[in-house]
Design goal:
By secondary structure, this protein is of the alpha+beta class. About 45% of the residues lie in helices and about 25% in strands. It has two domains: about 100 residues; about 200 residues, no CATH class.
Length: about 300
């Protein structure tokens, strides 16, 4: 063994605690980088898979009231692949376990067929049926907050009329991964939830039979969302259209994208911080070795090392 190698191992034995600390910092940085990037990749793939499975829309729009013939006109717009007209309403739910008013967004859902866009994943219970009673599906977060399950009954005020709603299933929607009430800044599952009701029943309750007040649109691959919105807005403008917006501006997707961006930033910055600390510690250890071993370094150089 060369003299320098023997000296290296002697020095490492003498400062083994400092070396172990530096190795631990480096290992922690590598672990954070690997875990963060793996989590980011897994979550991103899961989100895209969920969006693809449920046919998440590319463009969202709302109107005051429009006939179904307008939906057919929208489907003929260049670049539009599918249109799903809906009836949507914001209602008040009477929850005995909450003192403050509880709001909910009810979305019409076709009975007997899955919607073309923004489908649901039903985790418990069953889908809506053409039953005499008013049946609803409830978002998972709202159901967990109020301990709702299939068979529970909700009291809601829909268009000024009090109605009893029977919960038949618990569902997940790509549109409401983050359910945020009107005027709220953050999700509050205690005071805001999402329900899905038979489309024809909700339309009748809202006096919108034969019409719609909300729609979602899927675009053909390669179509610019801004160009499509520019062609859609003139059509819905005369029906009290509040404008259309693309998926990037949809509330739930925006919040979810923000969470993933935060995780992406953390996965990049934290390893750099660990690397900086490890470099600082290594610099201190090497500097002290050089300062205390100047005579040995001089002797080794004198012998030709």
């Amino acid at each position: 063994m060369r003299a320098l190698n023997r000296k290296l191992f002697r020095d490492l034995r003498r400062i083994r605690s400092q070396c172990a600390a530096i190795a631990a910092v480096v290992a922690a940085g590598v672990a954070v980088a690997v875990l963060g990037l793996c989590n980011l990749e897994t979550l991103s793939r899961s989100r895209e898979s969920f969006y693809e499975r449920t046919h998440f829309a590319d463009v969202f729009l709302s109107v005051k009231r429009a006939p179904l013939s307008v939906a057919r006109r929208l489907s003929e717009v260049p670049g539009v692949a599918a249109v799903e007209p809906r009836v949507v309403a914001t209602v008040i739910i009477d929850m005995p376990d909450v003192r403050e008013p509880v709001a909910a967004r009810i979305v019409g859902r076709p009975v007997g067929r899955p919607p073309v866009l923004n489908d649901l994943v039903i985790q418990r219970g069953r889908d809506l049926a053409d039953a005499p009673a008013d049946e609803v599906l409830v978002s998972r977060a709202f159901a967990a907050a109020h301990q709702l399950r299939p068979g529970s009954v909700l009291r809601a005020i829909i268009n000024g009329r009090r109605r009893g709603l029977t919960v038949v299933g618990i569902a997940l929607s790509p549109e409401f991964i983050y359910a945020i009430g009107p005027g709220a800044l953050f999700p509050d599952d205690q005071r805001f939830g999402v329900l899905w009701m038979a489309e024809h029943r909700l339309a009748a309750a809202m006096d919108l039979t034969g019409g719609f007040n909300d729609a979602v649109v899927r675009l053909e691959r390669g179509t610019s969302a801004k160009d499509a919105i520019g062609r859609i807005e003139p059509i819905i403008g005369r029906f009290g259209g509040a404008g259309a917006f693309e998926r990037a501006e949809q509330t739930s997707h925006w919040f979810l994208e923000g969470e993933l961006s935060e995780l992406r930033t953390t996965s990049r910055l934290l390893p750099l911080m660990f690397a900086g600390v490890a470099a600082f510690l290594l610099n201190i250890v090497i500097s002290r070795l050089i300062a205390t071993q100047r005579e040995q370094i001089g002797l080794l150089k004198a012998f030709g090392y």
